[in-house]
Amino acid sequence: MTLPADGEARAVTERYARRDPQADAQRYSLFDAAALQAHQERLRAVLALWRRQGWTGLQGRDLLEVGCGMGGNLLDLLRLGADPARLAGIELQGARAAAARRVLPPTVRVIEGDATAAELPAESQDAVLAFTVFSSVLDEAAQKRLAHAMWHWVRPGGGVMCYDFAVDNPYNPDVRGVPVARLRALFPQARAEVRRVTLAPPIARAAARLHPRLPAWLNALAPLRTHRLCWLEKL
């Protein structure tokens, strides 16, 4: 199913079209020591936040990722025990949605189009994930529409999991840091738990060239972390 895109959704698509897919594939390959360290740290942090909610597994939970890309995070959720039939992703770009369908089980639903136009039942999800999504939506009204839709889909006791840039990237004008205050404004009814994660990627890549374990050691220095992971609980 393909959903219509509004003006900001089209702008996001155009911004992503300027990126080099081969460079992205190399930069985020888990064969890269810096990318692997960031991936594993983020996954541990996600699990720690869910454990604090009393979750002991993903069995029996309905999970949705907005901006699921080529399905990498959904594969992680499957490895953590999510039921494929209760797992879904929404992806704006057709090529990425097609790539996700190729790697995911056929019972995982991948919806192509603008998430704000997705017709999903209210309070149908235990968790809605958005990883580096809000930093790519530069229009504040579009951010609000997206946050409203995500919150509408979450059932009480569940929440929204956001992972995003805490700071602007001076080398990439197509993304913008998402302060905690902005997340609280987008989800004013949520109870938020926030963790600072991810060693600054340029530092991580340079460190990995010296020693594959060096990014993990440097990540112990909180001021060098450039992203936030936030669980926004719906009470």
Account of the protein in words:
It is a single chain. The chain has 235 residues and is of the alpha/beta class. The chain has one domain (7-233): Vaccinia Virus protein VP39 (Rossmann fold, 3-Layer(aba) Sandwich), CATH 3.40.50.150. Helix content is 39%, strand content 21%. It has helices spanning 7-17, 21-27, 33-52, 72-79, 94-103, 140-153, 180-186, 201-210, 214-218, and strands at 63-66, 87-91, 109-112, 125-131, 154-165, 191-199, 225-233. The chain has a 7-stranded mixed β-sheet. The longest helix is centred in the N-terminal third of the chain and has 20 residues, at 33-52. The radius of gyration is 17 Å and the shape is globular.
Features:
235 residues; alpha/beta; Rossmann fold; seven-stranded mixed β-sheet; 9 helices; 39% helix
Short description:
The chain has 235 residues and is α/β, with parallel strands linked by helices. The protein has a single domain, classed as 3-Layer(aba) Sandwich (Rossmann fold), CATH 3.40.50.
Q: Profile the largest sheet.
A: 7 strands, mixed
CATH architecture label name: 3-Layer(aba) Sandwich
DSSP summary, beta strand count: 7
Fold-level CATH name:
Rossmann fold
Strand content: 15-25%
The total tally of domains equals 1
From N to C, what is the helix and strand string? HHHEHEHEEHEHEHHE
Mean pLDDT: 94
Q: What is the tally of helical segments?
A: 9
> Could you name the CATH homologous superfamily?
Vaccinia Virus protein VP39
Tell me the span between the first and last alpha carbons.
32 Å
Rough shape?
A: globular
Poorly predicted runs: none
Helical proportion? 25-40%
- Assign the CATH class: Alpha Beta
Radius of gyration from CA coordinates = 17 Å
Summing up helix and strand content along with how strands pair, one would put the structural category as: alpha/beta
* Largest sheet strand order: 3-2-1-4-5-7-6
